[in-house]
Design a protein that fits this description.
alpha+beta, five-stranded antiparallel beta sheet
């Protein structure tokens, strides 16, 4: 089984919108770029990545850089590395592990900068007005 440890090396965030102006409705674009999959040791692969968040209109920008260390059996690591050499996408477990960590970190930074988080907040639908219940029988 493959295990992924994610390490963040650089986190950059900047708020462009004036703190006194209310933030308008925004569109958030996220991008996770896996730069490569390098064989570090017999039992470890290194996966450098860059994660960016852009807002439209330009409210803020966040950038997270780091590396994922993938460990597992030699056969699994060889299979992942060979697939990368053949220009195939990385396995979902690697992408998901990196995404989980960087999204969590970016939500914390968003709170600090007082900007909308990059994940959609749950929407609670308005409660429908209940009709008076129909009698269960009629005479």
């Amino acid at each position: 089984m493959v295990h992924v440890s994610v390490f963040i090396h650089n986190l950059s965030a900047e708020r462009f919108w004036d703190i006194e102006k209310p933030i308008p409705p925004v569109q958030v674009a996220t991008n996770l770029n896996i730069i490569g999959i390098d064989k570090k040791h017999e039992d470890m692969l290194e996966v450098p990545f860059v994660f960016t968040i852009n807002y439209t209109p330009a409210v803020a920008q966040i950038s997270v850089k780091g590396r994922g260390h993938v460990t597992g059996s030699k056969e699994e690591l060889k299979q992942i590395h060979d697939a990368y050499k053949e220009k195939k996408p990385p396995p979902p477990v690697i992408v998901q592990s990196i995404s989980n960590v960087v999204f969590l970190e970016s939500v914390i930074v968003c709170r600090t900068l007082n900007i909308p988080p990059p994940i959609p907040l749950p929407k609670i639908p308005p409660a429908a007005k209940e009709k008076p219940s129909e009698p269960t029988y009629r005479a």
